[in-house]
Automatic annotation (TrEMBL):
Residues in Enoyl reductase (ER) domain copies: 10-330
InterPro entries linked: ADH-like_N, ER, GroES-like_sf, NAD(P)-bd_dom_sf, YIM1/Zinc_Alcohol_DH_Fams
Any one GO molecular-function label of the UniProt entry: oxidoreductase activity
Source species, domain of life: Bacteria
Name of the protein: NADPH:quinone oxidoreductase
Originating organism: Limnohabitans parvus II-B4
Pfam families: ADH_N, ADH_zinc_N_2
Amino acid sequence: MKAFIVDRYGKKELLKAVDVPEPVLRDDEVLVQVHATGVNLLDVKVRNGEFKLILPYKTPFVLGHDVAGVVVKVGRRVQMFQPGDEVYSRPDDHRIGTFAEFVPVKETSLAFKPKNLSMEEAASLPLIALTAWQALVEKAKLQKGQKVFIQAGSGGVGTFAIQLAKHLGATVATTTSTGNVSWVKALGADVVVDYKKEDFESVLSNYDVVLNSQDGKTLEKSLNVLKPGGQLISISGPPTPEFAEELKLPWVVKQVTRALSFGTRRKAKRLDFDFSFLFMKASGSQLQKITALIESGAIHPVVDKVFPFDATNEALAYVESGRAKGKVVIKVR
């Protein structure tokens, strides 16, 4: 089968288009024929080698974290799915590889594709939808009437998180550039800060939850918009010792995470905030709940561009440029 692989880690390295053997299916897995795959900033960071401490993939390996497609084969212990089913997923870490014609996915990480979406629309969702769900529903337990600040409202996670937070009944603030202000308001944002004109920390205050997806400087500023007892959930670091413990990472990695997050954890404790780092996990059961929201019309996918399979490197470069509004998708079949 044709696939795009990381042959060597590096910021300037291009993925290589190669022929690789069809994946070997485990008993608890489903083989999915890939129709479309989403492109995420995580793909860029994995290619660059930024996650080698946490996810030490041995090169060469197939990249890609989102899939929508059709089941072609099932493992002998699989019960929920059968050949011909239309499905979507964010495969588990260490079993990624959706920039390919086929990918194996654990049954527990797979869900039926929303009936009202195309394959390209469905492929845009799993990673960002699960990230938003696990941050706002699982960790923050966001309630009706609470205030949440979601950074980068026009990005992949931002476009979904805004809609989810509004569905949960929260008041939503976000940041974006001048040209996207009315666009993110249409997604449901109540307060939009144009970062080219003003600083969010001088506009926002007394927020219950902040979803941080930006750099360390933005993380520091975010502490100033929370109310006492508020929650700062970061999906862009720094990783915490609790995260390292949860993933059962080596002792030396635990010490690195302790050092990296020490300043933020200390400041959060002094100001009476809860700080946590979220590294999204695959979950078919959560995706099924998200499917229900999509099919009811409560949330809709936001797709910026669809690239052909041969242009996978161009799709990755476009995501890396930071210009995408919503998600970038690759049409494989």
